[in-house]
Amino acid sequence: MPRSALTGTRIRERRSLEGLKQADLARSVGISPAYLNLIEHNRRRIGGKLLVDLARELNVELAALTEGAHAPLIDALQGAAAESAALNDPIETDRIEEFAGRFPGWAGLVAQQREQITLLERRVEALSDRLAHDPFLSDALHEVLSTVTAIRSTAGILNAGDDIDPDWQVRFHRNMYEDSQRLATGSQALVSYLDTVGKADEAPNAPLDEVESWLASTAYALPENALETPISAGGGIAGDEVTPLDKSAQSDMLTSPAARALAAQWLERARRDAAAMPMGDVEAVLADFGPDPAALAQRTGADLAAAMRRLATLPAAEGRAALGLVTCDGSGTLTFRKPLDGFAPPRFGAACPLWPLYQALLRPLSPVRRVIEHMGQPPRQFLAYAVCQPVVPSGFDAPEVVEATMLFVPIDAVMDAAARSARPSQNVGDIVEVGTNCRVCARVKCPARREPSLLSGDVGSSFLNEVS
Amino acid sequence: MGKRVLLIEDEPNIIEAIRFILSRDGWIVETHSDGASAVGAVNAKQPDIVILDVMLPGKSGFDILRDLRADPEHAALPILMLTARGQKKDRDMAQAAGVSAFMTKPFSNSGMLDAVNGLMAAGDAPVVDVSGDG
């Protein structure tokens, strides 16, 4: 399946509408007519500046060339296809865009139901985990069964109608009475315990999901005034003591104590970042260099990861591009996700090992900067900055705890900034082609592929075979 | 000579009921309530048969079973295991460790008698499951 199939077709259609000749359009964007012909026939991938130029020459929005239907919807549909069990009829993964375009309502329903199913599955998993490993439950059940065993056996003796010594009879009656009391207490405790399961800290979402939807509701930007309140003493992100939650962390969207604690940690850190990098400095850096975490770090003395967090969580403003952010811990588990249109880190499960995030994780304290191209329809390019830093300054004996942070900037925002900046363009090496998750990634011959893809026909040949 | 059974169980009222049922059937019943010292009790009392609970203070019934089977002297000792959980994985674990018979709580009194007498009758012939690698 050619990934950008429809982009080329749309360019051709649009050019015909405009009444432009292939040769004229090619000349106006500085490429050869032959090359444009290849693009229009979907034989060459296209993205970045050339696509921007073509859109300008064709008098259309960039999105009109690249997006047949909404990219997030298509991502969700691909995810649904990837997670589905075997069906009688194979899913027409090559026609996802057509489906989303022709039946946006039905496609939305599929995406929404997939979301619900995933949440429910998580909940079932959490509950069965709890049933299997909960020490209280296991003790309570053991207590009830032991008591029932004693009662049954004793009642059996008394009920057999044999001659039983009166002393023994009295003793067994007393035992039965005691055991029935114990059984009553034990079963009541069990019932009230089971009543509370799922209420307190077992909200349908994982705590991180709650925090992320809360942050998404504020576009990931905390109001600057919330950040200016003084930092309480002793507040630390690793500490188990949680600083008093301010109003923003008591949002209705944060239902579980775990989510509120996570949100409080996030706020605390955002406050410290904001204190280290005041808005005036941030705006000066944005004006001079664009969203460049290194420039912000150099100006303010903050560390790179903090600069990335600060840039990714600025309030929306005129001319300020939205930036994406992911963090992971030393196990590679994603601990924060701020998605961007066209690059949504997976909600569950493992991500793409080719992300600069993981390259940074391999080399703590060495910053990584790469242009990445994300698989998808259309493929999109981002400039990604990543760095891995120790979380807690630790002694020589403590385990090393690190966190990797990756900021990703849409390539057009980078180009806008470069156009305004006097600085020579940065050398970032080759473009790294990445995905989100192997199941929904169509990249062929990927050396990092973990499992075959649903979207590509010939993965069998490339899976684990092509490591060069 | 009376047949001797060692009941390793920590629930006093269950001990009392089992002791009564088996004594009336002609068994000499000795009891032990601690997991950690259970293997020592078996060595000291040399019973003809052992009834072993799974959930014991100090040491689990599975571990006691493995320790007993590791000792050649007890390789063929009939051991009836009692557990509050009849799950297949528990049964499999007990079987792999060389249990002779397996009983789920709550049990009926006649079931208990049948199991103990059945194990005793099979006593001379080695029980097939027991001869494994322990």
From TrEMBL, chain A:
Origin: domain of life: Bacteria
Residue spans crossing the bilayer = none
One Pfam family linked to the record: HTH_3
SMART domains named in the record: HTH_XRE
The UniProt GO MF terms for this protein read: DNA binding
Ranges for domain HTH cro/C1-type come to 11-65
Matching CDD domains, A to Z?
A: HTH_XRE
Give the protein name, as stated in the record. Answer: Helix-turn-helix protein
Q: What is the organism of origin for this protein?
A: Pacificibacter marinus
The lineage, from the top, is: Bacteria, Pseudomonadati, Pseudomonadota, Alphaproteobacteria, Rhodobacterales
Automatic annotation (TrEMBL), chain B:
- Ranges for domain Response regulatory: 4-120
Q: Name one GO biological process term.
A: phosphorelay signal transduction system
Task: Supply the InterPro entries for this chain.
Answer: Bact_response_regulator, CheY-like_superfamily, Sig_transdc_resp-reg_receiver
4-aspartylphosphate modified-residue sites: 53
Q: Which UniProt keywords apply?
A: DNA-binding, Phosphoprotein, Transcription, Transcription regulation, Two-component regulatory system
Gene3D superfamilies recorded for this chain?
Answer: 3.40.50.2300
What domain of life?
A: Bacteria
| Key word Transcription present | yes
Q: PROSITE patterns, from UniProt?
A: RESPONSE_REGULATORY
A Gene Ontology molecular-function term?
DNA binding
Q: Spell out the coiled coil positions from the record.
A: none
What's the protein here called? Answer: Putative transcriptional regulatory protein TcrX
**Protein's organism:** Pacificibacter marinus
